[in-house]
Specification:
Layout: H1 11-19, H2 21-26, H3 41-60, H4 69-90, H5 93-96, H6 98-112, H7 118-141, H8 148-173, H9 178-208, H10 217-227, H11 234-259, H12 265-273, H13 282-299, E1 310-315, E2 327-330, E3 340-345, H14 354-363, H15 366-376, H16 381-391, H17 397-400, H18 404-420, H19 427-452, H20 457-468, H21 472-482, H22 490-512, H23 518-526, H24 533-544
Parallel strand pairs: 1-3
Antiparallel strand pairs: 2-3
Helix pairs in contact: 1-3, 3-4, 4-10, 6-7, 6-8, 7-9, 8-9, 11-19, 12-19, 13-15, 15-18, 15-19, 18-22, 19-20, 19-22, 20-21, 22-24
């Protein structure tokens, strides 16, 4: 599909980005780049009413023929709107989630702090000036039914944002023209004061907050059924997760014993971390791994490399390194021009104490780098994002929606694919992969258990300590992330998506027999965007039985 910036977006995307220009910026839609979005109660009520109207229209529409591209679009539209309406009703983000405001503002600033981009610098000034009023509206929205832990997270996020404003913005403005730099710096000071006030407000709110953070079984069941299109409820998913924990733990123990009978898997992992590049060679090591896995993707026929795709490696900008200890992947944004992704690595900070520098180096071991490169770049998230853009029209809901089950599942599926095709031949890499599989299985149990109230925070921490060998303080921090409003079913999506993708491939191989070609299968799979895997599986079946991508017979 041609990538044009002239076409309008799908009505659901237009509604979402008009309400949230910050998300629009991150997605490559720069039309409202200087705005933050209206969060007063009347504006929020209008947004929610518009979402309900769109859902009612979609539910009244005559359903297209099953298995066609039109049917896929309709099903994805229904899933997205049902998720949004259910979240409006059950979670009530704007009135119950203080950290949402602080985190959004951090994203709002980071999205427009682009060196050498004059319009983005103007947008940064505009957004900074809007922060005090934005946070006034936020305080008016938040009441005592906020969960205490969310208020505590709000204070933490706001303190972090205040630090970002005090240090990162002054560093950034050194590259701006003097007059603009002065305006931005002054606006950052005023915004910082407003953010500190919001942090104080969130801390005080935590003392009297009475709300519950658990999403509840009904909400989890709805997400599994209506959004992920899975024939599972929360109880069945928990049982599946526990089975996976047992089987993945057994596989890890057996693999480690065969690799080195004298040391258990924890000891072997610690030893592997000692083999790492020197800090000065860190970016080169990631670059070499990325180039190697790109070559393998092409030579092994795993997935097509479209003309113009590019994955650039660079350091994480200095002003963002504190919040990104290892780095980040920024896949090609769905509405941005071009097919460029950025894989950004956080360098070792020479100002740190020697022990912390050593710890950072060990986390970037050669085995970790080899494990993560394919997951993030080729044929992982970068290449999947490229095919997502090329396979979907700009005005389609398929361009807008990216199911975590598909996207995160693809990342894990890629790890399996690389091992199957011989890229992950090193036994240390394969040990890491099996350790990670255990962690991801535990995520299912913890994800569902916490939000249905069948697992306490203490029990979740104990699971990570006892089964995954995680340090107590790290496990506590990990579990805290699972309490978020946007967390229910997301951690489970990794394993569920990976397993579903394997099932789709097995089905396609059985249909094609000796004519099955891996690259052709993956190209077709990724040409429909990133919907729930069950939906794209139905489309592949429809095409195999003679229905074209939009419902026409194949010729």
């Amino acid at each position: 599909m041609p990538i044009s910036e002239a076409d309008e977006l799908h009505p659901v995307a237009e509604l979402a980005y008009a309400a949230d220009p910050i998300a629009a910026s991150e997605a490559g839609d720069r039309r409202r780049e200087g705005e933050l979005g209206e969060v007063d109660r009347d504006a929020l009520a209008d947004q929610q009413a518009a979402r309900r109207r769109l859902l009612a229209e979609a539910e009244r529409a005559a359903p297209p023929d099953p298995g066609t591209r039109a049917w896929l679009e309709h099903q994805v539209l229904l899933a997205e709107l049902r998720r949004g309406v259910a979240t409006d009703e059950r979670i009530r983000v704007a009135s119950r989630v203080p950290y949402w405001y602080a985190e959004r503002l951090g994203s709002a600033l980071s999205a427009v702090m682009v060196p050498g981009d004059a319009p983005a610098a103007d947008a940064l000034l505009s957004r900074l000036r809007r922060i005090p009023g934005h946070l006034d509206a936020a305080r008016a929205n938040l009441g005592e039914d906020v969960p205490r832990v969310w208020a505590e997270m709000g204070e933490t996020a706001a303190r972090g944002l205040a630090g970002f404003l005090a240090t990162a913005v002054p560093e950034y403005v050194t590259g701006l023209p003097p007059a603009l730099a002065g305006d931005v710096a002054a606006a950052a000071v005023a915004a910082g004061s407003a953010v500190e006030e919001f942090a104080d407000f969130s801390g005080a709110l935590a003392e009297r907050a009475t709300g519950r953070w658990q999403a509840g079984t009904a909400y989890v069941d709805l997400l599994l059924r209506e959004v992920h299109h899975l024939d599972l409820d929360a109880a069945e998913l928990t049982a599946l997760g526990r089975e996976r924990v047992d089987s993945d733990e057994a596989a890890l123990v057996a693999f480690a014993a065969a690799r080195d009978p004298r040391r258990d898997w924890r000891e072997q992992i610690e030893a592997i971390k000692d083999d790492h590049p020197e800090p000065a060679a860190l970016l080169d090591a990631y670059g070499a791994a990325t180039r190697a896995v790109r070559r393998h993707t092409a030579e092994a026929g795993l997935l097509s490399l479209p003309e113009g795709e590019e994955c650039v490696l660079d350091w994480v900008p200095a002003y963002r390194r504190e919040s990104l200890p290892l780095g980040e992947m920024a896949p090609s944004a769905p509405y941005a021009a071009g097919l460029r992704s950025e894989f950004r690595i956080t360098p070792t900070d020479p100002r740190l104490a020697a022990e912390r520098r050593r710890g950072h180096a060990r986390e970037n071991s050669h085995v970790f780098i080899a494990s993560i490169a394919g997951h993030e770049t080729y044929p992982g998230h970068h290449l999947q994002a490229v095919h997502h853009k090329l396979g979907t029209e700009r005005g389609s809901v398929l361009r807008f929606v990216q199911s975590p089950q598909f996207v995160e599942g693809w990342g894990l599926y890629v790890e399996d694919l690389l091992e199957e095709s011989g890229f992950m031949a090193d036994d240390g890499v394969r040990l890491f992969k099996r350790r990670n599989a255990l962690w991801r299985a535990l995520r299912i149990v913890i994800d569902v258990g916490l939000h249905t109230g069948t697992l306490s925070e203490a029990e979740a921490v104990a699971l990570l300590v006892e089964r995954a060998g995680m340090e107590q303080h790290l496990a506590a921090g990990e579990v805290r992330r699972y309490l978020r409003h946007d967390n229910p079913t997301y951690p489970s999506s990794y394993v569920l998506g990976r397993d579903a993708l394997h099932a789709v491939r097995a089905e396609a191989r059985a249909r094609a027999g000796s004519g099955f070609r891996l690259r052709a299968f993956h190209d077709e799979l990724l040409s429909h965007g990133s919907p729930p895997v069950a939906l794209v599986a139905a489309v592949l079946r429809g095409r195999a039985s003679g229905a074209g991508p939009h419902g026409e017979p194949l010729t």
